[in-house]
Design goal:
This protein is mainly alpha-helical. The chain has a domain of 126 residues: Methane Monooxygenase Hydroxylase, Chain G, domain 1 (Up-down Bundle), CATH 1.20.58. Helix content is 61%, strand content 4%. The chain has a two-stranded antiparallel sheet. It is elongated and about 80 Å long. About 11% of the residues have low confidence.
């Protein structure tokens, strides 16, 4: 019996191991990567499994908005690609729809507050992202100023030496311009030369001016859409708060009417005469 159990365990291990590896490899994938469809497929499976608990499904949906934002951020900084921002907004809108569908008032209020807090965080990060992309724009092509290294010899005309030489052409003689001295400090006596430490290049992609304009407009549009969703959430929350006393009184009235309609139950059988 034990041998059969061990054999079955090994079969399950070798069957599920490839799926576990694929899930691990797809976690940090972004749109366009080979494993990205696997990542989205696993998210769909989790959402389907969480359908039995609407509050759990909404909580997972809210976490998915953060995944979509990180994907959009990586694509913007690496490739100046704004396509993932559309998927991010769609995810936030889907989360808002599921928040509105919650029937439990307390759960709906908590989910609304959490989504609003997320939106505020995204707005702050979008401002920072816009600054980063503006700082990485490609400069316009201008003629660079002449450096001391570019011109070592400069020609200078000598003035005429006298009246007898007025008809002669001026003699051109080269004038030597010394090279600039190095600004690096001299090496210490008896020691090794000091190494010059250079900062690594930035990972932000250099963006052309036209692409920079598209990126800036897309980020602005995304911030506007987020603000609309936030205002809608806050308005509905305010309506629920204003309606709460009326709903509470209505619930009490309905419970009282239901209690009056039910037969009186004392837990004891009435005595017979």
């Amino acid at each position: 019996m034990r041998k059969i159990f061990n054999f079955t365990s090994w079969i399950l291990l070798f069957t599920l191991a490839p799926f576990a590896v694929l899930i691990f490899l797809s976690q940090n994938s972004v749109p366009g990567d080979l494993f990205y469809p696997i990542k989205r497929g696993m998210e769909g499976i989790v959402l389907a499994a969480a359908s039995a608990s609407p509050a759990t499904r909404v909580a997972f949906r809210t976490d998915l908005t953060e995944r979509r934002f990180k994907e959009a951020e990586r694509l913007l900084l690496a490739k100046a690609d704004t396509s993932a921002l559309d998927s991010f907004i769609l995810e936030v809108q889907s989360t808002q729809t599921e928040v509105d569908a919650l029937s439990n008032t307390l759960q709906k209020s908590q989910a609304t507050d959490r989504l609003i807090a997320k939106i505020d965080d995204y707005q702050t990060k979008l401002v920072q992202l816009e600054i980063q992309t503006q700082g990485s724009s490609a400069p316009s092509v201008n003629q660079s100023p002449q450096t001391p290294q570019e011109t070592i010899f400069q020609q200078q005309a000598l003035p005429p030496s006298g009246a007898g030489q007025a008809g002669q052409s001026a003699v051109q003689q080269p004038k030597v311009t010394p090279l600039p001295q190095s600004t690096n400090p001299p090496p210490p006596a008896g020691g090794q030369p000091t190494a010059v430490v250079q900062n690594p290049p930035s990972q932000t992609a250099v963006i052309a001016p036209e692409q920079q304009r598209i990126v800036s407009e897309t980020i602005t549009t995304t911030k506007i859409e987020l603000e609309k969703i936030k205002k809608d959430l806050e308005e509905k929350k305010r309506e629920r708060e204003e309606r709460k006393p009326f709903d509470s009184a209505q619930d009490k009235k309905e419970k009282k009417e239901e209690k009056e309609k039910r037969p009186e139950r004392n837990g004891k059988n009435p005595q017979k005469d």
